[in-house]
Amino acid sequence: MLRIVKVFFVITAFAICGCSYTQTSLKPIRPGGVDSSPYWNTYSIFFQYPPILKFKDVSGAKSYSFKVAADGYLSKIFSTKDSRVDLTKVWAQIPENSIVTVSFFAQDDNGKVLGAGERRSFMKTARFKKGSYPKKKEGYRRAALRIYDYVFDSSPMKSFRLTGKPDPSYKKNCYPSKMYASIISMCCGYAKLRPERKTEIVDFACLLADYLIKISMPAGTALEYFTPTYATGFGHSVAETYKGQTMTLYPASAGSALACLSEFIKDDHPEKAKRYLNHAEKIAATFLRIQGDDGTWFARLNETTGLPDGLRENREGAMSESLTRNRAIPTHMILFFDKLYEITSKKEYRKALDASLSYIERDGGPLATFNWEGQFEDGPPTPPYLNLTMSAPCSYANYVLQKFPDDKKRLQQALDIARFTEDQFLAWERPLTKDGKYITKADCPHISENMAWRLTTIGDWGVPGVMEQFDCYNPIDCHTGRTAEIFLQLGEILKNAEFIDKALALCDSIVNKIPEDGNMPTHWMGRHSAKYENWYNCMIITAQCLERVQDMIDASDLIN
Predict the structure, then answer these.
(1) Nearest-CA neighbor of 262 among 542, 200, 254?
(2) For residues 540 and 180, is the Cβ–Cβ distance under 8 A?
(3) In sequence order, which residues have a C-beta less than 8 Å from that of residue 196 and are 6 or more positions away?
(4) Helix, strand and coil percent figures for the chain, each rounded to 5
(5) Exposure class string for 164-198: b at 16+ Cβ within 10 A, else e
(6) How far apart are CA 238 and CA 233, in angstroms?
(7) How far, in Å, CA of 277 to CA of 216, rounded?
(8) In 207-313, which ranges are E strands?
């Protein structure tokens, strides 16, 4: 149950963010150049809140100037003492859903412009408007149950129960740790909602757990007992290309699922429960052995050597040594060690958990740098800020709000993350101008091919919805749910009605997009979504978010 803090803390919480949430609409998010904060928005193309931009310093420049043009708006020329541009002063005058172009130039002592100057284009997106979004067509828990029913009774899952092995027709089975960990986790909750089917649900969860253990790395190898990130034979090019690599996030997810299943079945199946917890602890032992002094792990490892590994391709050309050494943002590991510590009370798990939290929060960690790199199994490691995501920061924020709701510093961190997510990834409306225009690769040369293609589908986007990462820049079901959870927790802690309204608008949006058969679309791109196979793990996360939101609503004194 969400903890409700005392009134004196609520007042303090409002003080630490400086004003009410509504009033922060003209407040920049982690402004670059302030207290050594980095310019994290170098590759951003959408902004809801006023950005602080950094242009190149020009040799011999004595002054700088800039002007801002948007649909129906043209600013005067502003002077700035350096190559940093703060758009706060003009943001309120710029129309929502308009393409904004900032022209920037340097001058010498006589005011002569040096060089051709620079330009940067992006879009100012629409803010939340209470009461503007369709209400849910059914209750959140009922909607979640329909998703669970679909996943459990889907043809690939029926095939697995019948044969004891993955169905090759479902390509996402090429990600065994990710996929089966999610389904095991689902089964532990699903069995409570469908008590008449509990036996077959638990049997399936155990079948998946046994399969993960069977395919784990052998004892004595560099990554012993880790469950694999990739499996071949499913016709998926990603797994074929990256065979032999492990992303360290995913054995942690599998370990968490095994530990949760062990707890769920320990009374009815004590021997199986012991086996699953034992393997989870073996996974943990490998994590403890290879944890870095900084508290985290390399994001990708070679299965054979256990050494850091890169991908066979990336958008910059040949993989550089620095990218092969990208560090994992260890939110999956935090949840894993938290669960093991909860079950066993072993101090080594608490120590590893605290070290991982310290990595995120330390100087040079992602909370300081705001380099929330998109670390997913189907994409390459990237240079700083090239592929930001909301997934890892929201996982962190969700954790600290649940575990430390009276920690003022961490509350402020969660507020920053919520605003960052809304600014960069949340589309309250389809980001089109009144003439149907949108940001293109021509406007922003740094846009990847993948992002550029997705932007052409904007007219079909399901909104309100939340994008996952710059390289998967269209609304996604589970990330909409995760963002709703963060908003609702902040709304409860801060007694802030706007956060609560935003959370419910996002959850209603999810419910209204669930088809009759429960096969929840992963990508909300209208007719364009048909080309994509839906991800069961995303459906499950979405349904679990809806359940947790309903639990919070049931326990709340603020929500009718």
Answers:
(1) 254
(2) no
(3) none
(4) 45, 10, 40
(5) eebbeebbbbbbbbbbbbbbbbbbbbbbebbeeee
(6) 11
(7) 15
(8) 245-247, 300-302
DSSP letter string, 82-143? SSEEE-HHHHTTSPSSEEEEEEEEEE-TT-PEEEEEEEEEEEEPPPP-TT-SPPPSS-HHHH
Distance (Å) of CA 383 to CA 388, 448, 452:
10, 13, 19
For residues 212 and 176, is the Cβ–Cβ distance under 8 A? yes
C-alpha distance from residue 460 to each of 454, 477, 483, 527 (Å): 10, 15, 21, 7
Give the phi and the psi of residue 118 in degrees, each rounded to 5. Answer: -125, 160
Q: Work out the angle at residue 187's Cα, subtended by the Cα atoms of residues 182 and 192, and round it to the nearest 5 degrees.
A: 140
Task: Map residue 298 onto helix, strand or coil.
Answer: strand
Residue labelled with tokens 């705001």: 370
Helix crossing, 7-17 with 477-494: angle to 10°?
120
Rg value, the chain, Cα: 24
Residue where the block lists tokens 């320990």? 266
Q: Tell whether the torsion through CA atoms of 159, 164, 167 and 172 is positive or negative.
A: positive
Spatial distance between the Cα atoms of 8 and 404, rounded to a whole number of angstroms: 16
| Contact between residue 423 and residue 49 where contact means Cβ atoms under 8 Å apart | yes
CB atoms near residue 113 (< 10 Å): 13
Domain spans, the chain: 1-24+387-560, 49-124
Per-residue pLDDT of the chain (560 residues; tens, 9 = 90+): 343 333 333 333 444 443 444 456 789 999 998 888 999 999 999 999 999 999 999 999 999 999 999 998 999 999 998 999 999 999 999 999 999 999 999 999 988 999 888 999 999 999 999 999 999 999 999 999 999 999 999 999 999 999 999 999 999 999 999 999 999 999 999 999 999 999 999 999 999 999 999 999 999 999 999 999 999 999 888 888 889 999 999 999 999 999 999 999 999 999 999 999 999 999 999 999 999 999 999 999 999 999 998 654 444 444 555 788 899 999 999 999 999 999 999 999 999 999 999 999 999 999 999 999 999 999 889 999 999 999 999 999 999 999 999 999 999 999 999 999 999 999 999 999 999 999 999 999 989 888 999 999 999 999 999 999 999 999 999 999 999 999 999 999 999 999 999 999 999 999 999 999 999 999 999 999 888 899 999 999 999 999 999 999 999 988 86
Strands 113-124 and 46-47: parallel
Query: How far apart are the C-alpha atoms of 257 and 279, rounded to whole Å?
Result: 11
Distance CA 10, CA 418 (A): 18
49-124: CATH number: 2.60.40.10
